[in-house]
Design goal:
Layout lengths: L1 H26 L5 H11 L2 E7 L5 H11 L2 H7 L3 E7 L8 H13 L7 E5 L5 E5 L5 H27 L3 H17 L6 H10 L7 H21 L2 H15 L3 H18 L3 H14 L4 H15 L2
Parallel strand pairs: 1-2
Antiparallel strand pairs: 1-3, 3-4
């Protein structure tokens, strides 16, 4: 009887001491994506995926030290997110299951560099990309709140679009894609196709907007393969002439041309002149003001 009593007490003590340990591990960063996904669904939270090179990537280490490793960040972030670390170390070897999981997820989310921070809903559907940002936990948390707000605004616009028709629906879908663009998420091809069908006569300028964007992607991909900068400049001029895109898209084209002059052809003068043409299209818009800052910096070095 005494032996049984001791066993019961021992089990009770183990459970008592293990509870806080379990709670601590539950609230820490996890490496198990499937477990994180299940927890996110259960607790109705989003997921924050940190693709990192923890022992070699300078910016990853900086992000960990300044933000993700700080107790105040974890305490606040875990109210809204399940935190998942997907690490690609070089000096240590993770378990094979984790290594394969991380490689698969890097392909799924199109990871091209480190650190990349991906924000998803509980199902793992991506709605934002970000990375290192200065300012510590408080500013990073505010940044994450803005990303979440953009996602909610996108969802509201998509819901309104489903109740609309014609050009009004096209405009709402376009606005929803622009909101996600602020979250560094590319446009859904199916939604783009729908917008182009709805504005097939280009009455709202949306068909040409997306045709030019698609053309820009093709041209940039070709530059990467051929390094033929002169052909790229000619193709960009033809693209604008044929599609007659709205002002903000024409600014994008000129900005890309300026980059080709600067980085490809090493022609600083032509690059600066092209930036000024971009600015002159719409000088008072947010994009125009950013262009003005770039021009001022290039001219003065400040």
């Amino acid at each position: 009887m005494k032996k049984r009593f001791v066993i019961v007490i021992t089990i009770g003590l183990c459970l008592a001491f293990s509870a806080p340990i379990m709670a601590a591990s539950r609230s820490a960063w996890t490496e198990d994506f499937d477990a994180a996904k299940a927890r996110a669904a259960l607790e109705k939270k989003d997921m924050l995926l940190n693709f990192s090179g923890s022992d070699w990537c300078g910016w990853c280490i900086k992000l960990e030290q300044e933000v993700f490793g700080r107790a105040e960040f974890k305490k606040a972030a875990e109210k809204k997110f399940v935190l998942v670390r997907l690490d690609f170390p070089q000096k240590s070897k993770p378990p094979e299951r984790i290594r394969q999981q991380n490689q698969k997820l890097a392909k799924v989310y199109g990871i091209e560099g480190f650190p990349t921070v991906v924000v998803t809903d509980a199902e793992g559907r991506l709605y934002a990309r970000t990375g290192y940002r200065p300012g510590g936990p408080e500013k990073y948390l505010a940044h994450l709140d803005r990303l979440r707000e953009n996602r909610m605004r996108h969802d509201r616009l998509m819901a309104r679009a489903q109740q609309s028709r014609g050009l009004e629906k096209a405009r709402l879908l376009d606005e929803a894609l622009e909101v996600m663009g602020k979250n560094q998420v590319g446009p859904d091809p199916d939604v783009v196709a729908q917008i182009k069908r709805l504005d097939s006569k280009n009455l709202a300028g949306l068909r040409s907007k997306y045709e030019v964007r698609e053309g820009l992607m093709r041209i940039m991909e070709e530059i990467g393969r051929t390094k033929d900068f002169d052909k790229a400049l000619r193709d960009l001029d033809r693209l604008v002439a044929s599609a007659n895109p709205p002002p903000d898209i024409r600014q994008d084209v000129y900005y890309i041309k300026a980059g080709i002059y600067y980085q490809g052809k090493k022609d600083r003068k032509a690059g600066l002149e092209t930036l000024k043409k971009a600015w002159q299209i719409s000088p008072d818009t947010e994009k125009g003001k950013k262009l003005a800052e770039i021009i001022r910096h290039l001219e003065t070095g400040k």
